[in-house]
From TrEMBL:
PROSITE patterns: PROTEIN_KINASE_DOM (PS50011), PROTEIN_KINASE_ST (PS00108). This is non-specific serine/threonine protein kinase. It is found in: Cytoplasm, Cytosol. Residues 92-401 form the Protein kinase domain. Its main location: cytoplasm. GO terms for cellular component: cytoplasm; cytosol; nucleus; plasma membrane. GO terms for biological process: auxin polar transport; auxin-activated signaling pathway; cotyledon development. Serine/threonine-protein kinase involved in the regulation of auxin signaling. Acts as a positive regulator of cellular auxin efflux and regulates organ development by enhancing PIN-mediated polar auxin transport. Phosphorylates conserved serine residues in the PIN auxin efflux carriers. Phosphorylation of PIN proteins is required and sufficient for apical-basal PIN polarity that enables directional intercellular auxin fluxes, which mediate differential growth, tissue patterning and organogenesis. Acts as a suppressor of root waving. One of its GO terms (molecular function) is ATP binding. Belongs to the protein kinase superfamily. AGC Ser/Thr protein kinase family. The keyword Oxidoreductase does not apply. It catalyses: L-threonyl-[protein] + ATP = O-phospho-L-threonyl-[protein] + ADP + H(+); L-seryl-[protein] + ATP = O-phospho-L-seryl-[protein] + ADP + H(+). It comes from the Eukaryota.
Length: 474
């Protein structure tokens, strides 16, 4: 990857100058290599000031999960000060280059006069792209404008400047899941961490499918980690849209009253098994079962058999990729990987079934459930593949995800893994200060009780509160 470039602070508007080169630079993952372009900044106020248009999503004040996001406050302040109430490139200050993708380059940036809010600016030079890739740019911008979900990016502004398209989205400071996976012993996550990341990705895919969006690009490289350790899917240029008909009904099923969680001590706790009972659950299903495309796109190790064959594919490609994703997190490699790209594609298209690695240190509670889930997702006939008919609802009910309270998933504590999110010392200090406050109050009330016995009940209340004070959070 090119060296990071720092840009001077200036009050002038700027335009981008792109020079295409013939060299190919390998990306951070060995699974792909992309032709790069040299992108520099030239300050030319007159060139762009008359050709800049900005689109800001109309629901910026109604985003429920972003209601208190300081980024929206900063955007609102900047647009209020703008003469036309729009955000322009002159309002942004580029800090450094973050990376280069298939369509353009991504920069870390801030709003001028507001250093507290950071963003990622995706810059796409339309003059260097083919008509096919231009359609991908339009698709990504359209999909980003539709999203409102804690595990998906927010589009803060869509700026058209000359022949450049600029998308202002969330910046995730903790990198991507692929890089974090490579830091783990044996390139594998513990089972509890696999369950955590798989559950959040599943919820994000469920939301996309409910909008009629087939993702088609699921892989650890496209899963970014927010500052709080939760995930964010990225790169929507390979998606396609289809019609979806939501249904709501009540589903009767037999389940255990409280199942033994396979991941004792993990993110989701554990409970004891106490028999079975019949439950009637409300079920919302919104799966694009009629989706159909013949385009062969994606990362070869994650391609579904029907996509490799070229006979057309639908929503099932995402559930196949989800099975490959869980397998890679658990075993450190993909299930059909061969010695070359062609060999991998032949393994996927063949009748060979998924094979599980035998690793001694991986024999922990829950491995059988994980393998069973992977096996049902990696069924080569999409008509029999788990999730293809009823979507994420069937996958959520698999024993691998037992014990997860899905409406509360974004409030779960992320797993502690090697190279993961560091603990914030300030919060720990706050807990320590609160502990000293309780001790001081306990001392004063004890002395007061020794002098007067009239406040015994109040002291007992304070003493009990002290013994049941909240535990520290990471």
């Amino acid at each position: 990857m090119d060296e990071e470039t720092y840009f001077p602070d200036t009050d002038l508007d700027f335009s981008f100058t792109s020079t295409t080169t013939d060299r190919t630079v390998p990306s951070s993952s060995a699974r792909s290599s992309l032709a790069r372009s040299s992108l520099t900044l030239s300050f030319n106020e007159s060139r762009l000031s008359c050709s800049t248009t900005t689109t800001t999503p109309s629901n910026i004040t109604t985003l429920h999960h972003r209601k208190w996001d300081p980024r929206w406050s900063a955007i609102k302040a900047a647009t209020n000060l703008s003469s036309d109430r729009n955000l322009h490139l002159r309002h942004l200050k580029l800090i450094r280059h973050l990376g280069t993708g298939n369509l353009g380059r991504v920069f870390l940036c801030q709003l001028r006069d507001c250093n507290s809010a950071t963003f990622a600016l995706k810059v796409i030079d339309r003059d260097t792209l083919s008509n096919k890739k231009l359609s991908h740019v339009q698709m990504e911008a359209e999909i980003l404008s539709m999203l409102d979900h804690p595990f998906l990016p927010t589009l803060y502004a869509h700026i058209q400047a000359s022949h450049y398209t600029c998308l202002l989205i969330d910046f995730c400071p903790n990198g991507d899941l692929h890089s974090l996976l490579r830091k783990q012993p044996g390139n594998r996550f513990p089972l509890a961490a696999v369950r955590f990341f798989a559950a959040e990705v599943l919820v994000a895919l469920e939301y996309l499918h409910a909008l009629g969006i087939v993702y088609r690009d699921l892989k650890p490289e496209n899963i970014l980690l927010r500052e709080d350790g939760h995930i964010m899917l990225s790169d929507f240029d390979l998606c396609f849209k289809a019609d979806v008909v939501p249904t709501f009904k009540f589903q009767s099923r037999k389940s255990r009253k409280s199942r033994q969680n396979c991941f004792t001590g993990g993110c989701f706790g554990s409970v004891a098994d106490s028999g079975e009972e019949e439950e009637v659950d409300p079920e919302f299903v919104a799966e694009p079962v009629t989706a159909f495309s013949r385009s062969c796109v994606g990362t070869h190790e994650y391609l579904a058999p029907e996509l490799v064959s070229g006979n057309g594919h639908g929503n099932g490609v995402d559930w196949w990729a989800f099975g490959v994703f869980v397998y890679e997190l658990l075993y450190g490699t993909t299930p059909f990987k061969g010695g070359s790209k062609d060999s991998t594609l032949r393994n996927i298209a063949s009748s060979r079934q998924v094979r599980f690695l035998h690793v001694t240190e991986m024999e922990e509670a829950g491995t059988a459930e994980a393998n069973d889930l992977i096996g049902k997702l990696l069924v080569k006939d999409p008509r029999r593949r788990l999730g293809c008919t009823r979507g994420a609802q069937d996958i959520k009910r698999h024993p691998f995800f037992d014990g997860i309270k899905w409406p509360l998933i974004r409030h779960y504590k992320p797993p502690e893994v090697v190279g993961g999110v560091a603990r914030k010392r300030g919060h720990v200090g706050h807990v320590k200060r609160r502990r000293w406050l309780w001790k001081g109050l306990d001392y004063l009330m004890t002395r007061n009780r020794n002098n007067k016995n009239s406040n015994g009940n109040y002291y007992d209340y304070v003493h009990n509160c002290n013994n049941n004070k909240p535990r520290k959070h990471a």
